[in-house]
């Protein structure tokens, strides 16, 4: 194991050895440079690029520039492994670097280099908190080098978003960047578009985004009719049905089927002949109600907040605000929870993360855990995972799993372990799979009367996650956390003095004076010296009229900025900086002492309470301990009643346990079981991989169509002169009609009947003058007819144009754009619905030997062609008859 690690270390390091040496040498030379010279690097490097050098040519100098800037501004010297990570990112790979190795800084290296091209760089994080925290933390480095930094947040105005997207480097969350893309492609006016190019992106916590979140596509939906009664009635009905008699549950596939008896019962209850009737179908509603009842559990799969059902991500334990389950399932759960049933999803636009991120010319990512999913990254995203060794060798002890027969005994054992650790003072982090289980453990610990911090997916706790995680390494601290709550924040043994000092300042400013006078809880536990520092700060800030100028919600960023200013500090900045420095000194001493104590005790102890659906998630949890060469340990407690073993384990494990004939309280160390366990886990990984792969394959069809539609839309939006496009649409409509009528006849000249048909059709759609002479075209060949009709169309169009121009100058151009976009959007939305229906129904049909995906592709193609034809026809129709259709005064552009 050790050898393997060293080998890997030397492999990857030797591959980049020369570049690394060069970077370090240049940055060493730069140490003697004055600031101004270092700052001119950006200009100089951009010039190199203009003169024809490539990014790779200038990589060593650019990286050295960032390294030296970081040393000056942040006082941190980047480790070789960090620089290595940066090179790997620049090459468009995934850098696997463990938690606490300093990936936030790693990203600055390739971000700076790629920003020199002036095409933008996106740094993607999993939540708003991290986007803000990371951008603020590295801002001084970029700022020093004259590189602008943007931060895009939810609910920002269009103007502000646009501004931030235009910066050299933009920090943003995965969902916001995806939704902005969809919204941009629904814009009916060019100034509503906020995004620029998709040049280079670095995805932080890349596995969470490209694997976990990739199971659900991003969807923008609008309201449509909702059958509230049906959901309610189905829910009532579902409570009367009995498992196995009326229905069966397939937990693995998350599916439910009705038995014949169940179907008869439903039909009687609803007083209908057939629950599958086409006109007014019920089956879907009943099945959803049963799923809501049996497979979706409150506080595990979803929470209810403010009368709303909100999805909880099974893997991460995070709530997924705004996401909804599709096909009526969400409504069924709303009926079950007796909250307001919201409108059905009517999809206006959608994209999967898989296809969204493939839009970037170069994609890269970083995380602590990617290698178990390396294959998927390669197959779907065409991106390689490269492991970077840790800066210091990891000495964490991963203890063998303990397996109990019953879940109950497992939890008692976990609580006991927490108790023991608390007694000796060692910090413990317990990872649970859901809120319900976190609370169960919390109750047990209450009985033992030991304190703990609880982090879970509930919104009121989410804000505090990072703060609590940052201090989870202090002695005598127990932290219970659903899966990856607080992801992105590393646990420092003894506590994180910087975070703590900052927090105290922010909290004080948020509630000045009043708490102080009352000397209430917030401050009474504080170190006496810190109390007086804070008092001083407040009175000094008061003297500078600070509080009158400040708005509440900006305090934390205000403080963050003030602490990072190097030059041009104003009075207030200086007060804050000094207080911070002094508090930091005190905490650093206190925490240093505690750190030594915790290290002696063995570092952070991580407890897993269940194997997760993928080894990667288990590794994430384990990786919380043993950062930067710290001591630490991890242990998983399992039981035969755990989901993984119950659903995917099979009988083998139970047989082993039975044959060992041990009592309930005695666990077995699972060396014997580990094979079966690993197999079960691999089955689950594969299962979820299949789901994602299927989503990807099916979305691929839609994706090429989406690209085509979005490209057409963009062309129209950008175009100043759309007349050509309308003419083109009209001509294709003529082609379409001609080929329809001439396809079935060998006679290339038109006969009488044909001519009448064509004329009528063309007249309906294109509004050509009725006096087109029958005789004239009767003897023509098809090509001649085509040209003749083209010409007629142009003439008629010119006349329409003149007419509309006379109504209001410029009107025709506005109408053109408006009709085009409106029709494209409408047709596309209808198309999306048809595609969703097709996708669903393709599973039901049987095709003999035919592969459903192939069938789906074929049908999707003809649906698409129909849509395009339809768009062209309607646009031509509307333009040629616009007077009848709308009042020109009311066009909103
Ligand atoms: P990761 O994202 O890899 O888990 P972070 O970027 O959050 O790690 O950094 C973890 C901590 O390590 C931060 O507090 C950061 O200040 C610190 N750090 C990063 N790089 C260095 C360095 N070269 N020297 C010292 N400390 C560093
Ligand atoms: Mg990080």
Automatic annotation (TrEMBL):
<dbReference type="GO" id="GO:0006605">
    <property type="term" value="P:protein targeting"/>
</dbReference>
<keyword id="KW-0934">Plastid</keyword>
<dbReference type="InterPro" id="IPR000185">
    <property type="entry name" value="SecA"/>
</dbReference>
<dbReference type="Pfam" id="PF07517">
    <property type="entry name" value="SecA_DEAD"/>
</dbReference>
<dbReference type="Pfam" id="PF01043">
    <property type="entry name" value="SecA_PP_bind"/>
</dbReference>
<dbReference type="InterPro" id="IPR011115">
    <property type="entry name" value="SecA_DEAD"/>
</dbReference>
<dbReference type="GO" id="GO:0005524">
    <property type="term" value="F:ATP binding"/>
</dbReference>
<keyword id="KW-0793">Thylakoid</keyword>
<dbReference type="GO" id="GO:0008564">
    <property type="term" value="F:protein-exporting ATPase activity"/>
</dbReference>
<dbReference type="InterPro" id="IPR014018">
    <property type="entry name" value="SecA_motor_DEAD"/>
</dbReference>
<keyword id="KW-0547">Nucleotide-binding</keyword>
<dbReference type="InterPro" id="IPR036670">
    <property type="entry name" value="SecA_X-link_sf"/>
</dbReference>
<dbReference type="InterPro" id="IPR011130">
    <property type="entry name" value="SecA_preprotein_X-link_dom"/>
</dbReference>
<dbReference type="GO" id="GO:0017038">
    <property type="term" value="P:protein import"/>
</dbReference>
<feature type="binding site">
    <location>
        <position position="82"/>
    </location>
    <ligand>
        <name>ATP</name>
    </ligand>
</feature>
<feature type="binding site">
    <location>
        <begin position="100"/>
        <end position="104"/>
    </location>
    <ligand>
        <name>ATP</name>
    </ligand>
</feature>
<dbReference type="InterPro" id="IPR020937">
    <property type="entry name" value="SecA_CS"/>
</dbReference>
<dbReference type="Pfam" id="PF07516">
    <property type="entry name" value="SecA_SW"/>
</dbReference>
<keyword id="KW-0811">Translocation</keyword>
<protein>
    <recommendedName>
        <fullName>Protein translocase subunit SecA</fullName>
        <ecNumber>7.4.2.8</ecNumber>
    </recommendedName>
</protein>
<dbReference type="InterPro" id="IPR011116">
    <property type="entry name" value="SecA_Wing/Scaffold"/>
</dbReference>
<comment type="function">
    <text>Has a central role in coupling the hydrolysis of ATP to the transfer of proteins across the thylakoid membrane.</text>
</comment>
<feature type="domain" description="SecA family profile">
    <location>
        <begin position="1"/>
        <end position="669"/>
    </location>
</feature>
<dbReference type="GO" id="GO:0065002">
    <property type="term" value="P:intracellular protein transmembrane transport"/>
</dbReference>
<feature type="domain" description="Helicase ATP-binding">
    <location>
        <begin position="84"/>
        <end position="242"/>
    </location>
</feature>
<feature type="binding site">
    <location>
        <position position="490"/>
    </location>
    <ligand>
        <name>ATP</name>
    </ligand>
</feature>
<dbReference type="InterPro" id="IPR044722">
    <property type="entry name" value="SecA_SF2_C"/>
</dbReference>
<keyword id="KW-0067">ATP-binding</keyword>
<dbReference type="GO" id="GO:0009570">
    <property type="term" value="C:chloroplast stroma"/>
</dbReference>
<keyword id="KW-1278">Translocase</keyword>
<dbReference type="Pfam" id="PF21090">
    <property type="entry name" value="P-loop_SecA"/>
</dbReference>
<keyword id="KW-0472">Membrane</keyword>
<comment type="similarity">
    <text>Belongs to the SecA family.</text>
</comment>
<dbReference type="InterPro" id="IPR014001">
    <property type="entry name" value="Helicase_ATP-bd"/>
</dbReference>
<dbReference type="InterPro" id="IPR036266">
    <property type="entry name" value="SecA_Wing/Scaffold_sf"/>
</dbReference>
<keyword id="KW-0150">Chloroplast</keyword>
<dbReference type="InterPro" id="IPR027417">
    <property type="entry name" value="P-loop_NTPase"/>
</dbReference>
<dbReference type="GO" id="GO:0009535">
    <property type="term" value="C:chloroplast thylakoid membrane"/>
</dbReference>
<keyword id="KW-0653">Protein transport</keyword>
<keyword id="KW-0813">Transport</keyword>
């Amino acid at each position: 194991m050790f050898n393997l690690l060293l080998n890997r270390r030397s492999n990857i390091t030797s591959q980049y050895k020369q570049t690394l040496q060069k970077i370090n040498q240049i940055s060493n030379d730069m140490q003697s440079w004055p600031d101004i010279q270092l700052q001119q690097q950006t200009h100089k490097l951009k010039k190199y690029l203009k003169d024809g050098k490539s990014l790779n040519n200038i990589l060593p100098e650019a990286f050295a520039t960032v390294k030296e800037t970081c040393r000056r501004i942040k006082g941190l010297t980047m480790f070789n492994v960090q620089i290595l990570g940066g090179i790997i990112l620049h090459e468009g790979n995934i850098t696997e670097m463990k938690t606490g190795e300093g990936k936030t800084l790693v990203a600055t290296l390739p971000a700076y280099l790629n920003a020199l091209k002036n095409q933008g760089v996106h740094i993607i994080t999993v939540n708003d908190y991290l986007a803000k925290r990371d951008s603020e933390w590295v801002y001084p480095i970029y700022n020093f080098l004259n590189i602008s930094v943007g931060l895009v947040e939810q609910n920002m105005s269009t103007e502000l978003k646009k501004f931030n997207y235009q910066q050299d480097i933009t920090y943003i969350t995965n969902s916001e960047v995806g939704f902005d893309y969809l919204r941009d492609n629904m814009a009916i006016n060019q100034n509503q578009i906020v995004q620029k190019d998709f040049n280079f992106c670095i995805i932080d916590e890349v596995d969470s985004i490209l694997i976990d979140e990739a199971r659900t596509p991003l969807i923008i939906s609008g309201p449509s009719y909702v059958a509230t009664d049906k959901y309610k009635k189905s829910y009532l009905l579902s409570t009367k049905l009995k498992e196995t008699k009326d229905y069966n549950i397939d937990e693995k596939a998350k599916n439910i089927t009705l038995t014949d008896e169940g179907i008869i019962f439903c039909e009687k209850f609803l007083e209908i002949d057939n629950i599958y009737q086409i006109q007014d179908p019920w089956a879907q509603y009943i099945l959803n109600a049963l799923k809501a009842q049996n497979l979706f559990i409150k506080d595990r799969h979803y929470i209810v907040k403010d009368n709303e059902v909100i999805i909880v991500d099974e893997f991460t334990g995070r709530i997924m605000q705004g996401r909804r389950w599709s096909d009526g399932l969400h409504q069924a759960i709303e009926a079950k929870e007796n909250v307001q049933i919201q409108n059905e999803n009517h999809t206006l636009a959608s994209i999967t993360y898989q296809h969204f991120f493939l839009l970037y010319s170069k994609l890269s990512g970083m995380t602590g855990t990617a290698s178990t999913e390396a294959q998927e990254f390669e197959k779907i995203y065409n991106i390689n995972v490269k492991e970077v060794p840790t800066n210091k060798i990891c000495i964490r002890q991963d203890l063998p799993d303990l397996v109990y027969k019953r879940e109950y005994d497992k939890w008692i054992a976990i609580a006991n372990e927490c108790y023991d650790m608390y007694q000796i003072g060692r910090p413990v982090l317990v990872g649970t799979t859901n809120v319900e289980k976190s609370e169960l453990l919390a109750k047990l610990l209450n009985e033992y009367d030991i304190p703990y911090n609880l982090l879970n997916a509930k919104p009121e706790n989410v804000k505090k996650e990072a703060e609590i995680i940052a201090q989870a390494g202090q002695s005598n601290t127990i932290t219970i956390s659903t899966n990856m709550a607080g992801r992105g924040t590393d646990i420092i043994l003894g506590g994180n003095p910087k975070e703590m000092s900052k927090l105290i300042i922010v909290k004080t400013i948020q509630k000045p004076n009043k708490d102080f006078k009352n000397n209430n809880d917030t401050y009474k536990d504080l170190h006496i010296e810190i109390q007086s520092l804070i008092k001083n700060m407040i009175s000094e800030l008061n003297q500078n009229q600070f509080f009158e100028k400040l708005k509440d919600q900006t305090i934390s960023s205000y403080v963050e900025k003030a602490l990072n200013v190097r030059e041009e500090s104003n009075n207030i900045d200086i007060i804050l900086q000094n207080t911070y420095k002094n508090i930091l000194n005190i905490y650093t001493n206190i925490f240093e002492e505690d750190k030594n104590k915790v290290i002696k005790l063995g570092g952070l102890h991580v407890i897993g309470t269940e194997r997760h659906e993928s080894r990667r998630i288990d590794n994430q949890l384990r990786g919380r301990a043993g950062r930067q060469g710290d001591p630490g340990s991890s242990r998983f407690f399992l039981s035969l009643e755990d989901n993984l073993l119950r659903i995917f384990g099979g009988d083998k494990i139970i047989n082993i346990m039975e044959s060992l004939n041990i009592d309930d309280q005695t666990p077995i160390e699972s060396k014997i079981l580990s094979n079966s366990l690993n197999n079960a886990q691999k089955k689950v990984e594969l299962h979820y991989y299949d789901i994602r792969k299927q989503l990807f394959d099916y979305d691929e069809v839609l994706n090429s169509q989406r690209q085509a539609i979005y490209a057409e839309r963009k062309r129209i939006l950008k175009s100043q002169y759309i007349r050509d496009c309308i003419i083109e649409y009209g001509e294709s409509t003529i082609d379409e009609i001609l080929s329809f009528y001439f396809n079935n006849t060998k006679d290339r000249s038109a006969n009488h009947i044909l001519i009448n048909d064509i004329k009528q059709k063309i007249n309906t759609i294109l509004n050509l003058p009725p006096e087109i002479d029958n005789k004239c075209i009767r003897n023509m060949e098809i090509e001649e007819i085509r040209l003749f009709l083209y010409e007629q169309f142009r003439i008629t169009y010119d006349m329409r144009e003149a007419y509309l121009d006379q109504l209001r100058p410029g009107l025709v151009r506005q109408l053109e754009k408006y009709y085009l976009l409106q029709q494209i959007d409408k047709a596309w939305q209808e198309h999306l619905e048809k595609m969703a229906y097709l996708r669903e129904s393709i599973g039901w049909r049987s095709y003999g030997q035919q592969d459903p995906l192939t069938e789906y592709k074929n049908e999707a193609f003809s649906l698409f062609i129909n849509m395009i034809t339809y768009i062209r026809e309607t646009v031509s129709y509307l333009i040629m008859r616009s007077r009848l259709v709308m009042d020109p005064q009311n066009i909103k552009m």
